[in-house]
Amino acid sequence: MQEFHKVRRLPPYVFEQVNRLKASARAEGRDIIDLGMGNPDLPTPQSIVDKLCETVRDPRTHRYSSSKGIPGLRRAQAGYYARRFGVKLDPEREVIATLGSKEGFANMAQAITAPGDVILCPDPTYPIHAFGFIMSGGVIRSMPAAPDDTFLPALERAVRHSIPKPLAIILNYPSNPTAYVASLDFYKDVVAFARKHDIIVLSDLAYAEIYFGDEAPPSVLQVPGAMDVCVEFTSMSKTFSMPGWRMGFAVGNERLISALTRVKSYLDYGAFTPIQVAATAALNGDGSDIAEVREVYRKRRQVMVDSFSQAGFKVPAPDATMFAWAPVPEEFRALGSLEFSKLLIEKADVAVAPGIGFGEHGDDHVRIALVENEHRIRQAARNIKRFLASARGNLHNVIALDARR
Ligand SMILES: Cc1ncc(COP(=O)(O)O)c(C=O)c1O
């Protein structure tokens, strides 16, 4: 039987190859330190768990919930935007709860894309940004990931040379995997351009609260007029360490939110009500939970940058996110990020995410996630130091492992 049209467009997940290697190493009894997947290891704050338990005892919460999110939850998300960004949202028309931001993003793509629509997408980027649209029949044109002065010229070129004119542009700052952070001035330029050319802006703000500088990352919706063309996605997964709960939001332009609401009304009945109630309590909290999560990542980041660098693996300190985006050490560059990642598992018992999994422009890097404790991060650095010392002494053998040479 022929491969299905959609499935043919989804290449095997690159990360699966690393995962398989990791699983077989573990099956041999080896202790793999897993800095690969961006899966937060911190427990959800106790007060949020307690709220869930309390709510679930009421049998009325066991029925189908509301697809777009219970009113209190949407009000809480509007409250968060007002406090954190000074952005006023109508909870009825400009806010929808989603089953994690990934689901919201993918279904937004489904809601708005016609076959052949051109989408401007950063490379490297979190895979759903491209594949949500590819699954929806869209065509991707790659954009630089850095929010610097190369971006607007690339945007102008993209609009000049894309037929049809691009439907949407995707932004993700703070960015996974590169950890780039955008300024409000950058957003102003993009919004002005998008309004002029009538292009939709989809901003993924999953890492709004995981930042280490003095200034908190802005929202694109802070730009006056952004509401005309923008929707922004946020997530409780990282902010409150709730990845398994599947709770996120889309907020912004009413027409776009309404399109997503319509599609989702056909697909789901919303998250389990106790989850929505607990999420409401989390968002209405005083912010101390968020600050605690941020501090844990801040400390881990410092430990990682210091210990990895001392081990001979230079890792730039990320300004935000739970990831470091580390250049593959020069002498291993020719192997590519996947082979280097495999070597780290095989020889150092450390798993990282190969940059190629985020797009072809990611192949000189690996992404290192801060999802193990400080002690384990130091252990990873010691393992890597040993590996690098022996590999550097014996580099010809390592390079000989490169099947592509
Ligand atoms: C940039 C980005 N967007 C979205 C998501 C998905 O988050 P959620 O758990 O809300 O679906 C992630 C998860 O790693 C991410 O890194």
TrEMBL record:
GO terms assigned for molecular function: pyridoxal phosphate binding; transaminase activity
EC nos: 2.6.1.-
PROSITE patterns: AA_TRANSFER_CLASS_1
Keyword Transferase: yes
Family annotation (InterPro entries): Aminotransferase_I/II_large, LL-DAP_aminotransferase, NHTrfase_class1_PyrdxlP-BS, PyrdxlP-dep_Trfase, PyrdxlP-dep_Trfase_major, PyrdxlP-dep_Trfase_small
Pfam family of the protein (one): Aminotran_1_2
Cofactor(s) required for function per UniProt: pyridoxal 5'-phosphate
Record flagged with keyword DNA damage: no
CDD domains, per the entry: AAT_like (cd00609)
UniProt keywords, alphabetically: Aminotransferase, Transferase
Aminotransferase class I/classII large domain span: 31-383
NCBIfam families per record: PRK09148.1 (NF006604)
Sequence similarity: Belongs to the class-I pyridoxal-phosphate-dependent aminotransferase family.
Full protein name: Aminotransferase
Source taxonomy: Bacteria, Pseudomonadati, Pseudomonadota, Alphaproteobacteria, Hyphomicrobiales
